[in-house]
Amino acid sequence: SELSALRGKASDTFSFNLTLRNSSARAATFGLTATGPEGWTVDARPSASTQATTVAVDAGGTAAVAVTADPPDSVTAGRYPIAVQAVGGGRTLKAELTAEVVGSFSMTFATANERLNARGRAGGTSSVALVVGNDGSAPLDGVTFSATPPNGWEVTFEPKTIERLAPGKKTTITARIRPSGKAVAGDYDVSVTASSAGTTKDLAIRFAVETSGLFGFFGIAVIVLAVAGLLWVFRRYGRR
């Protein structure tokens, strides 16, 4: 083989180029086979033909052999052996190849209820459950979280960091959002981000600030006092 080891992603097809040499004094026809790990699609054929599984080689001559190895999408990072055989002329020739899969980094980031809205009162703290998933083939190490809230707001995360998230796994964290005590009622955008080496995901949450119950109480109290004042004025001066 020109290169006995190749490196690529899980989505790649590994292609090896080999040379088959017949060092005997007679021409021979060789049957080609290739095997790989379970779930892999591995094939060995003469470079000059994509259909043939045998190749005729003259005495002292050579033939080019192409080997392809296609890993399954779910393959994890690691080194995988590919065995190639050429059988002919009473001999068995072998080549050992290696396909090194470099893990792919991919992350999912969403709210636990799949809704991109939340609500709370000015100055109060609201909790939003967020789900982080690893749908790549390599572990996600040191996943951190950050936020871009409006001025005067605070956003904290619990936990602050996920040390390691294995492929195919999910975990839940909590974002605690505290609007400014001076925030008026209305809708605000809060952007949260999950980051790990190789991948970043953003999530935009629409946060509705509600009118404080204390303001409502004061409003009712003012109305009651105004009505009481009018009744008192009417009783005291109504007959005059």
Strand order, sheet with most strands? 1-8-7-3-5
Structural class: mainly beta
Approximate helicity band: 10-25%
The dominant shape is rod-shaped
The stretches of 5 or more residues where confidence is low (pLDDT under 50) are none
Average pLDDT over all residues: 89
Order of helices and strands: EEEEEEEEEEEEEEEEEH
Number of H- or I-type helical stretches: 1
How many strand elements? 17
End-to-end Cα distance: 116 Å
Q: Strand portion, in percent?
A: over 45%
Give a description of the structure.
It is a single chain. By secondary structure, the protein is mainly beta. Helices cover 10% and strands 55% of the residues. The chain has one helix and 17 strands. It has a five-stranded mixed β-sheet with strand order 1-8-7-3-5, with no helix packed on it. Strands 10-17-16-12-14 form a five-stranded mixed β-sheet, with no helix packed on it. A hairpin with a 2-residue loop joins β16 and β17. The mean pLDDT is 89.
Summarize the structure.
By secondary structure, this protein is mainly β. Helix content is 10%, strand content 55%. The chain starts with a strand and ends with a helix.
Keywords:
about 240 residues; mainly beta; 5-stranded mixed β-sheet; 17 strands
SSE layout and pairing:
Elements: E1 5-9, E2 14-21, E3 28-35, E4 41-46, E5 54-57, E6 62-70, E7 78-88, E8 91-102, E9 107-111, E10 117-121, E11 126-134, E12 140-148, E13 154-158, E14 161-165, E15 170-178, E16 186-196, E17 199-210, H1 213-237
Parallel strand pairs: 1-8, 10-17
Antiparallel strand pairs: 2-6, 3-5, 3-7, 4-6, 7-8, 9-11, 11-15, 12-14, 12-16, 13-15, 16-17
